[in-house]
Amino acid sequence: MADDGLEQLRETAESRFPGRVARLEGGAFAIAREDLDLPVTFAPIPGSPECAIVRAPVLALGDLARPGAFAVAALAGNFFWTGANGATLSAGADGKLYMTERRALSGFDDADALDRFLDDFAEAASDWRERSALYA
């Protein structure tokens, strides 16, 4: 995708998921796919128009009885990105655990590629939600 790759991806998402894509500030957008229980946000990266930051909230750390122990597990999951399928895990200022990934827009050459990515991203997030039950 060219310099307007994120806009093209948004258009693909709007076509694939009518009424489920929200336009955000600065060219970002969020997809709330019916079968996903988390919104996935795509945002531009200044100076890197060929890539986007993809981010989704995974869970609220305050809902866990042992959030510190879970945070240690999440940090271990960041090691070589193996625990989150290529994404990283971080705690947000709002007390939520987020999964974030820098993605080349060229990997989203059609709506099926977007679907596959969202499936994989949601699966990784779901895995961390299941792991959080050990710390509840």
* DSSP helical segment count: 3
Give the fraction of residues assigned to helices: 25-40%
| Spatial order of strands in the largest sheet | 1-2-3-4-6-5
Tally the structural domains. 1
Instruction: Report the mean per-residue pLDDT as an integer.
Output: 90
Structural class: alpha+beta
Briefly note the CATH topology name: Yope Regulator, Chain: A
N-to-C series of helices and strands: HEEEEHEEH
Shape: globular
What's this entry about, in short?
The chain has 136 residues and is of the alpha+beta class. It is built from three helices and six strands. A six-stranded antiparallel sheet has the order 1-2-3-4-6-5.
Verbal overview:
The chain is α+β, with helices and mostly antiparallel strands. It has a single domain (about 5-135), classed as 2-Layer Sandwich (Yope Regulator, Chain: A). About 35% of the residues lie in helices and about 25% in strands. The chain has helices at about 5-15, 65-75, 110-130; strands at about 20-25, 30, 40-45, 50-60, 90, 95-105. The chain has a 6-stranded antiparallel beta sheet with strand order 1-2-3-4-6-5. Strand 5 (about 90) and strand 6 form a beta hairpin. The longest helix has 22 residues, at about 110-130. The radius of gyration is 15 Å and the shape is globular. It starts with a helix and ends with a helix.
Note the main attributes of this structure.
single chain; 136 residues; alpha+beta; Yope Regulator, Chain: A; 6-stranded antiparallel beta sheet; 3 helices; 6 strands; 25% strand; globular
